[in-house]
Amino acid sequence: MRVCTGCCLGFVLLGLLAGCRSGDADFLASGAFEAVEVVVAAEAPGRLLDLALEEGQTVSAGQVLGHVDCQPLPANNVDLLLKHCTVTAPMDGVVLVKYAQVGEYAAPGRALFKLADTRHLILRAYVTAAQLSQVKVGQSVELRADFGEEGFRVYHGKVTWVSAKSEFTPKTIQTRDERANLVYAVKVAVENDGLLKLGAYGTITRTDP
Fold first, then answer.
1. Could you give the 3-state DSSP secondary structure of residue 72?
2. Among 41, 50, 162, which residue's Cα sits nearest to residue 111?
3. Domain range 37-116, CATH class
């Protein structure tokens, strides 16, 4: 089946202002947690016979999740026919959205569901030009994730990407220097302990040399 891979754009928690919490001034960059997403689409035309998944369900790579009635297709290659007509999970992940229902017509390329790898998250944060020299690819960093009334939890991650091009500061992003108009995006890979959620607010509080 055909899959389209992209990265989910995280939405940061609104209304978080500098100094609202103790120690908030001691951060290098802030942003939101994202995950790699995969949209699984039908590869052959036919009626959707079954689709055994629900939003929020965890699935494993290769797991059979549904079948498409491909009887109109020529059956001269049974293996290929079975492959096209069987819906499987391309990776381990959590079902974010279910687009199709049993009985609907699954045209080739029609999205059936969307998965996200929630075990390996990415914090997309933003640094100013003055802070750019403090961040480099491969560097280990300390993060704090905001859990609202429960406070903060500390995580450790690694910088995997630093943008070579500046952009205007997103309105929902807080920077240490609020006068900064241009910032650079940074991606930090983080292992999820099961508590982090997509779109949750996080800050980079320390970087290793």
1. coil
2. 41
3. mainly beta
pLDDT 10s digits, 137-156: 999 999 999 888 888 999 99
* Boundaries of every domain in the chain: 9-35+118-207, 37-116
Whole-structure pTM value = 0.76
**Helix, strand or coil, per DSSP, at residue 102:** coil
Q: Could you tell me which residues come within 8 angstroms of residue 48 by beta carbon, excluding any fewer than 6 positions away?
A: 42, 66, 67, 68, 69, 100, 101, 102, 103, 104, 105, 106, 112
For all residues of the chain together, what is the average pLDDT? 84
**β-pair type (167-168, 152-162):** unpaired
| pLDDT score at 176 | 60
Sheet bearing 86-88, strands edge to edge: 47-51, 64-69, 86-88
% of the chain residues with pLDDT over 90: 60
Residues 167 and 159: their CA atoms lie apart, in Å, by 19
Q: Pick out the chain residues at pLDDT < 50.
A: 3-25
Which pLDDT tens digit goes with each residue over 88-108? 999 999 999 999 999 999 999
- 135 is written with which tokens? 């961040």
Residue 75 sits at φ, ψ, to 5 deg, of -100, 30
Domain 9-35+118-207: CATH class, spelled out: mainly beta
Q: What 3 state SS string does 22-33 have?
A: CCCCCCCEEEEE
